[in-house]
Amino acid sequence: MSKSIDGEEHLKKTYHSWKNEEQEEFLDMCTGARGVKMLYDAFFKEVMDPEYAPQRLSDFLSAVLGAPLRVKTALPNDTTRLTDESSLLVLDIVVEFEDGRIANVEVQKIGYLFPGERSACYSADLLLRQYKRLRDERKKQFSYRDIRTVYTIVLFEHSPEEFHAYPGVYRHCFEQTSDSGLKLKIPQKFTYIALDIFKKKQHNEGDRIHDRLEAWLTFFCRDEPEMIFRLIEGYPEFTALYEDVFELCRNVEGLMEIFSKELLEMDRNTVKLMIDQMQEKIDAQEQAIQQKDAELEAVRQEKDAELEAAKQQMQCQAESFEQRIAELERKLAER
User: Fold this and answer.
1) In angstroms, rounded to a whole number, what is the distance separating the alpha carbons of residues 55 and 45?
2) What is the DSSP letter of 76?
């Protein structure tokens, strides 16, 4: 494999621009020593494209949400994303199920800071888009009962810090409930899956695959040949997915392009995360400084008040002395 790379000058130049460990990882993929990383942008989209193979995404989402679902179509994704955020996404698609429910599915290479706040914003945007679309389609016949559930499903390759407070839990589901027991249909639900935590938990349990959801997660995040064989043995339908990726890997030049792009995105993601963390630290420091300034200002005001009170007390004492002196002078004059 290295000889075929060295035979093409532009491939050789690209290959030798990588670090040693990156070169070894690429050769492992090419030789089959390890499987490819399914969360690479090109690979994920190849096997999970809802236009090409909607049954695969249907099966995965059914496993995530715990109910049989069929993807009807992919919807235009015009949700506003910050430019620097979009670079962190492997996949960001919106699909409509046959029953009208909607799911926004995204895979994040590195988990954003403030994952709950971000997801809530994009879920609200998607819910508003559904409302406008249904209102325009049905006009006077529109009713709020037409609104269907909007799911936000986020997979983290490297999950945010707060998820690691629950090391044995890789799947977290959120929905709104009342403190009184009142039941209302609030059509926003969130599911977060931490693939790094799943991988560690699975390894600690002897690399077993317990159910279909774990089969999908194994497909996404395990690239060891023994795990690939174990997955195919238990779930032979995944063979077709690996075959699709294998076809991509036969083109060495194309594979190098995919790999180079992933390395570049990884660098960008790392820089973005460092900037976010640094900004968060700066914000915390500024807040601490403001709090300290407020405390010092309160102390200064307290001291000023004490000085003012002492000044008034001394003035009162001086006035008292003056009155006593005047009284003594009056008595001396009378004698």
Assistant:
1) 14
2) P
Query: CA-CA distance, 153 to 142, in Å (whole number)?
Result: 27
Classified as helix, coil or strand, 107 is strand
Q: Is 88 helix (H, G, I), strand (E, B) or coil?
A: coil
Distances (CA, A) of 297 to 53, 96, 300: 65, 57, 5
pLDDT at 206: 94
> Pick from 56, 55, 126, 127: which is nearest to 92 by CA?
126
Question: 202: closest CA among 187, 185, 222?
Answer: 222
Q: How far apart are CA 270 and CA 109, in angstroms?
A: 10
**Average pLDDT value for residue range 186-213:** 95
pTM of the model: 0.70
Return the closest-CA partner of residue 150 out of 169, 133, 167: 133
The 8 Å CB, 24+ separation contacts for 169-173 are: 169/197, 170/194, 170/195, 170/197, 170/198, 170/201, 170/217, 171/64, 171/198, 171/213
